[in-house]
Specification:
It is a single chain. By secondary structure, this protein is α/β, with parallel strands linked by helices. It has two domains: 59 residues, DNA polymerase, domain 1; 274 residues, Aldolase class I (TIM Barrel). The chain is built from twelve helices and 14 strands. Helix 11 links the parallel strand 13 and strand 14. The structure holds S-adenosyl-L-homocysteine and iron/sulfur cluster. The site of iron/sulfur cluster has 11 residues, from helix 4. S-adenosyl-L-homocysteine binds next to strand 10 and strand 12.
Length: 340
């Protein structure tokens, strides 16, 4: 049986059409699921008994369970167990403007970036759209909060799970679903160029973040294997295309690795690469983990790097550090659990 949370309204409408039911029913179903948050078809009291039986014969309510929860003043971190026993994680970050959530898109990751805990454990499988949606539902229910923005930056490479990602985005953006505005949603990719081009033509103005982490191919090849497939040059062209199509400035993520990619020469190369482009740079303090020898850039190196970019006219910010003390480096909680 199909998990009902996998179904965007487009998909539900196709099914409704196939059984000769009017498509406005999908609006009613969505309102029960995402506004009233019922957990059984029997609770959908404005639907006819016969139709409820039809729904039951086709769809199930799957739920993930909260396996572990860690809390700090600014962060909530969840480890979830899926119905097949796999683990994923999601993190809530509390800002003064609202709560944002970072969700996982795959169980593990096959991109194998040299510094990343999520990629250290290979991909087991893609998450279904519903399993990404449910991370949001479970957190809102457990923490009794409303999540106003969503970043797809947890475990996994979202563009390696493109179709389910798109269904997920449709469900959370749907005005009858979670109604999270496209401008409050960000998808982060390691740089799968053909998917960036495809995503540029997806009709929602969703923010795109690209993990660059190095200003030249030689260094990026060492840090991110994907660069051997899609070079920086190809990536820059895709970023320009994304802006052209969506009018959304792309965020360039740059994780600050001490004495690896944080020299003034690197800052100079980065400024030259990005000058004149419609991008923001977000410098990410590295979350150290015991499995890699990389360390976080010192305060003074980070400051010099930042100042150089700033003086060169590049829009640059430093990511606030969330929950480093509670294993918040993406993938750490899961890795701890799996390797216990
Ligand atoms: N696979 C996607 C999205 C998930 S990773 C991507 O790579 O963009 C989200 C971000 O966290 C990426 O920029 C990634 O490089 C970064 N990241 C991975 N491990 C990290 C760590 N230990 N500390 C800080 N950032 C990390
Ligand atoms: Fe995968 Fe992103 Fe980690 Fe690279 S940084 S291994 S793409 S999750």
């Amino acid at each position: 049986m199909v998990n009902i949370y996998n179904m965007s309204r487009d998909k539900l409408n196709v099914w409704l059409d196939s059984i000769g039911v009017k498509s406005y029913k999908s609006i009613q179903i969505f309102e029960w699921l995402y506004q009233k948050r019922v957990k059984s078809f029997d609770d959908m009291t404005n639907l006819k008994k016969e139709f409820i039986e039809k729904l039951k014969s086709e769809y199930a309510f799957n739920h993930l369970t909260i396996k572990k929860k860690q809390e700090s003043s600014t962060t909530l971190k969840y480890l979830f167990e899926l119905t097949d026993g796999n683990y994923i994680e999601a993190v809530v970050m509390k800002h003064d403007y609202g709560n944002s959530v970072c969700v996982s898109s795959q169980i593990g990751c096959n991109m194998g970036c040299a510094f990343c805990e999520s990629g250290r454990l290979k991909k087991v499988r893609n998450l279904e759209a519903g399993e990404i949606v449910e991370q949001i539902l479970a957190i809102e229910e457990d923490a009794k909060i409303r999540l106003s923005s969503v970043v797809v930056m947890g475990i996994g490479e979202p563009f390696d799970n493109y179709d389910n990602l798109i269904e997920f985005l449709k469900i959370i953006n749907d005005p009858h679903g979670l109604a999270i505005g496209a401008r409050h949603i960000t998808v982060s990719t390691s740089g799968i160029v053909p998917k960036i081009l495809e995503f540029a033509n997806f009709p929602l103005q969703i923010n795109l973040a690209v993990s660059l982490h190095a200003p030249n191919d030689e260094l990026r090849n060492k840090l991110m294997k994907i660069n051997k497939v899609y070079s920086i040059d190809a990536l820059m062209k895709a970023i320009d295309y994304y802006y052209e199509k969506t009018n959304r400035r792309v965020t360039i993520e740059y994780v600050m690795l001490n004495n690896v990619n944080d020299s003034i020469e690197c800052a100079k190369e980065l400024a030259n690469l990005l000058r004149g482009k419609n991008v923001y740079v977000n410098l990410i303090p590295y979350n150290e983990t015991s499995h890699f020898e990389f360390s976080k850039s010192t305060e003074s190196r980070r400051k010099s790097f930042f100042d150089y970019l700033h003086k060169s006219g590049i829009t640059v910010t430093v990511r606030r550090e969330f929950g480093g003390n509670i294993d918040a480096a993406c993938g750490q909680l899961r890795a701890n659990e799996v390797e216990k």
